[in-house]
Amino acid sequence: MSVVEQYARARIVTDEDAGDEPGAVPVVLRYDAATDPRSVRVRLPGPHEWAFPRELLERGLRGPARDGDVRVWPCGRVQTVVEFHSPHGVAVVQFDTKTLLRFLGRTYMAAAAAPVAG
Predict the structure, then answer these.
(1) How far apart are CA 52 and CA 69, in angstroms?
(2) Backbone φ, ψ for residue 72 (5° rounding)
(3) At 57, which helix (H) or strand (E)?
(4) Terminal-to-terminal C-alpha distance of the chain
(5) Whole-model pTM?
(6) Distance (Å, whole) CA 16 – CA 40
(7) CA triplet 94, 13, 23: central angle to 5 degrees?
(8) pLDDT (tens digit, 9 = 90+) per residue, 57-91?
(9) Rounded Cα gap, residues 115 and 39, in angstroms
(10) Cα separation of 101 and 5, whole Å?
(11) CA distance 110 to 33
């Protein structure tokens, strides 16, 4: 299986609702080794989806990392923040680090099992 899709719960804060304290919302983490082996996708509620390098997510679990409009950094010992910038604003998503580690592990297993294009 070359596709990994993991459902997660995350806390989302956007600059549009700066005064609100939203609860956990469903987020979809997706990886497709066959079509885009270097990227992961994060789909937030509504029509919001970002693709960014899988390597950025890995680096961001250890320390602040940035690639274009996406920033990732550890927040304490058990949380990781992913920040997305777009023309419509900024979305800050806080994940349990263990959720992202589990997802990354599954992506590496999928990449190893995927047939090599040639």
Answers:
(1) 9
(2) -135, 135
(3) helix 54-60
(4) 18
(5) 0.85
(6) 25
(7) 75
(8) 999 999 999 999 999 999 988 999 999 988 878 88
(9) 17
(10) 14
(11) 6
